[in-house]
């Protein structure tokens, strides 16, 4: 996006601030906006009027008076636009349509192997997007967000050598979806979207820091810094699954390297070890499952933990310790307010979280661990699509994006490419 020439009082910075403060519940009246944004009454009044004319804010009820005339409350008009959000996993995907508050209006969880490749996947996805939009005015669509289970170069929206997504390397997801839907498209790593969804759903403060660890079949993390996802230079920040934690070459990872965290503590690695355990006669619980289904899944191991199977308990505890150990180093390095664990690992009882929590606390520096919260994610299946919607709305209501689309009255008035880059 081309940068605007600087002005003494940047109209769009002020507009973006006003809308963000109301949208995030930080200010509800014009006087509160003035105090929170440190802007004068005239500027606030003009920018609120502009936001109202754009359909982003409206005057709602009257706030209680603190003496004098009671101020009108302002409301963010989340119904002004829609976001389509899809988060792909290895074997299934979530699709949702949300409003501008990232409220899920409709949602599907669908079995779909990402290994089918991008063309088939997006043909499949477009069908469900069309279905989700049926009950709405398609002209209200503001953006599409796609989350993928692998590294993404954020500026271009292309996956970068994703280990579990054959055929996706360098694929132009943004180009494909923008041509189809005619709206701006953002593409992000699934853990980043989960992290943003969790941060917003739990009201993480704008001055707080969080690391969200998705520990499921694979392992990834999203880093939230001052309320925003920290992606680093290219978008690779938080990709901890392929950090090398074992210094010998005995354990192969599905990325082609050896000794990765995922190859020791990911759900797929536990499932691999479980089959060995069955063959060595170390778990009757798993042997019964293996006999019945011909395989062991990470979910089977989770159920084994709940059932009290000794092998499953030990395997999950060891995985939690390995992940917790790396997280202790990251807690020292990054000093977050909270570490959140999501994904399949925390679904099977509290063993994983208890061991991970203990490992992080006992190995992190006292100052870094002092007020640290370690907890399970509260957002479930829809955390990623909710995070995706927040991402799109943050982007479209940024000062740069508003400068591009506000003069035309709505985001669809400008070329999607003008809205996606460099925000
Ligand atoms: Zn690896």
Automatic annotation (TrEMBL):
Ribosomal protein listed as a keyword: no
InterPro entries: ATPase_NBD (IPR043129), ROK (IPR000600), WH-like_DNA-bd_sf (IPR036388)
Keywords: Kinase, Transferase
Source species, domain of life: Bacteria
Entry GO MF terms: kinase activity
Family matches, as SUPFAM superfamilies: Actin-like ATPase domain
Residue ranges of coiled coil: none
Annotated family: Belongs to the ROK (NagC/XylR) family.
Identification of the protein by name: Sugar kinase
Species, as recorded: Streptomyces fumanus
């Amino acid at each position: 996006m081309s940068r605007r020439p600087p002005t003494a009082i940047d109209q769009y910075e002020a507009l973006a601030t006003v809308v963000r403060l109301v949208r995030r519940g930080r200010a509800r009246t014009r006087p509160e906006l003035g105090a929170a944004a440190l802007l004068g009454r005239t500027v606030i009044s003009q920018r609120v009027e502009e936001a109202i004319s754009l359909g982003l804010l409206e005057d709602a009820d009257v706030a209680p008076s603190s003496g004098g005339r009671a101020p009108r409350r302002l409301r963010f008009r989340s119904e002004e636009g829609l976001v389509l959000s899809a988060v792909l996993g290895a074997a299934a995907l979530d699709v949702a349509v949300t409003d501008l508050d990232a409220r899920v209006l409709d949602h599907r969880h669908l079995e779909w192997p990402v290994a089918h490749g991008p063309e088939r996947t997006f043909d499949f996805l477009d069908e469900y997007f069309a279905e989700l939009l049926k009950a709405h005015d398609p002209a209200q669509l503001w953006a599409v967000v796609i989350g993928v289970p692998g590294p993404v170069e954020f500026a271009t929206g292309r996956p970068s050598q994703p280990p579990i997504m054959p055929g996706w390397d360098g694929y132009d997801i943004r180009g494909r979806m923008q041509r189809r839907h005619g709206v701006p498209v953002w593409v992000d790593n699934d853990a980043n979207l989960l992290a943003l969804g969790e941060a917003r759903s739990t009201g993480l403060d704008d001055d707080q820091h969080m690391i969200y660890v998705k520990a499921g079949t694979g392992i990834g993390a999203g880093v939230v810094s001052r309320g925003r996802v920290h992606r680093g230079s290219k978008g690779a920040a938080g990709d901890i699954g392929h950090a090398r934690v074992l210094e010998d070459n005995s354990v192969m990872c599905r990325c082609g390297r050896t000794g990765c965290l995922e190859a020791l503590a990911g759900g797929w690695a536990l499932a691999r070890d479980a089959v060995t355990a069955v063959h060595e006669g170390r778990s009757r619980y798993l042997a019964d499952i293996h006999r019945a289904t011909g395989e062991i899944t990470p979910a089977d191991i989770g159920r084994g933990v709940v059932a009290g199977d000794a092998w499953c308990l030990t395997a999950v505890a060891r995985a939690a310790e390995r992940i917790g150990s790396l997280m202790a180093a990251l807690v020292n390095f990054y000093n977050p307010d909270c570490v959140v664990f999501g994904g399949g690992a925390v679904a099977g009882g509290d063993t994983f979280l208890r061991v991970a929590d203990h490992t992080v606390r006992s190995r992190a520096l006292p100052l870094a661990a002092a007020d640290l919260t370690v907890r399970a994610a509260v957002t479930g299946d829809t955390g990623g699509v909710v995070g995706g919607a927040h991402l799109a709305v943050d982007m479209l209501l940024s000062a740069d994006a508003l400068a591009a689309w506000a003069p035309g009255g709505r985001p669809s008035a400008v070329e999607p490419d003008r809205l996606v880059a460099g925000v």
